[in-house]
Amino acid sequence: MTNSTLPDSGTPDPEPLWQRHPTLLAAWCIVSAFGTYACMYGFRKPFTAALYIDDPSTPGLKASLIASQVLGYTVSKMAGIRVIAAMPTRRRIQTLLVLIAVAETAWVLLGVVPSNLAVACLFLNGLPLGMVFGLVLGFLEGRRLSEAFIAGLCCSFIVADGLAKTVGLRLLEAGVPERWMPAVAGAIFALPLLGFTAMLSRMPPPSGLDVAARSDRSPLQRHEQWEFLRRHGGIVLLITLAYALVTLLRSVRADFSRELWKALGDPGDPSVFTRSEFWVALGVLIPMGLLSRIADNRRAFLTGLALSCLGLSMVLAASLLWRWKAIGAFAFMVSIGVGLYLPYIAVHATLFERLIAITRHRANLGFLMYVADTAGYLGVCGVLLTRGFLTTGDGFLPLFLDGSLMISSLAILALVLAGIWMQRRHALRPSPRSL
Fold it and tell me: How confident is the model at residue 381 (pLDDT cuts 50, 70, 90)?
């Protein structure tokens, strides 16, 4: 046998078809990210479908459980500012699976420990889950289609929020005890989670064209984080303020959705959670996905701000229309959902992503998102820990409506100021364009 007949061990294996075809690659990225994070919600949100009112020794238990989980989630976000920003790609999947395993362990403990330790179990559940989003996000950022990919990812926690509640409520109707329902729900989501993370692990890195259009996104050291904030802290602060306000209202809508539906007078069947969030996801996914087609980074940034303000205007309008009895419960919940998720996802998918691309300064999306998430969830913790009456039926809806009007107005103001900052700071500079 001659050398010419020997296989060339130095030639790399050909890429799979789905990696070479842009449409297939995009579908692979969206499905793997969407599925992974949607399954994570199966380990976080099903317990909110329960009322936790049967134990007279623990009044207000549900509010305490939610507050404890959010507190753990917030601590995780704070740690993620450092951990996620510096996480190398090769360690993301392994870390993600370990975090999910810890969260499921907390649900098992919830089923066996006394009632006075239930709050500790919820804190343990939230503690690892706060970092999952950043691990998934790291696979999607810095690409010419990042808006479409990240919009798909973010729609997972719109749809999955309703799906997780539906699964939880179905399990309760099937006779699963409230304390064991979250663990059973997690077990249901475990197998698909493994499949989607396997897909996620095979995603190729950003191409040379991606890097040219959006800048390199490598692990970020602490001094580099501070340098970015020193240069661009003003606009990061404005976006973070708007995001924190939206996060607060979005979390109340999500965590107390069952109580909110009852206050609206139309609790519906368990599928109402999934049906309403499907329309919310559809109303958000299309405009956010189209932003990826705007080549100019500065124009895309400003368009993202405009869409965010439009969404917050929907929150204002829906709140007023309900008070005027001019809108039904389902339309109200969908309108509030679309209005809140437009700015919420715009921050994830467009505003910080394009800000990095405009400035070309060393940064990554995980770092900026975890700064914003920390601020947002600190606000949620503050409200849950000081306003436990949110779980009561009397007065819940008027409080939600007042909060919607105030928060959406303040968030619009912050985003308008961010747009003015961008126009003044970068109006005369050429904007890097997607290639």
Answer: confident
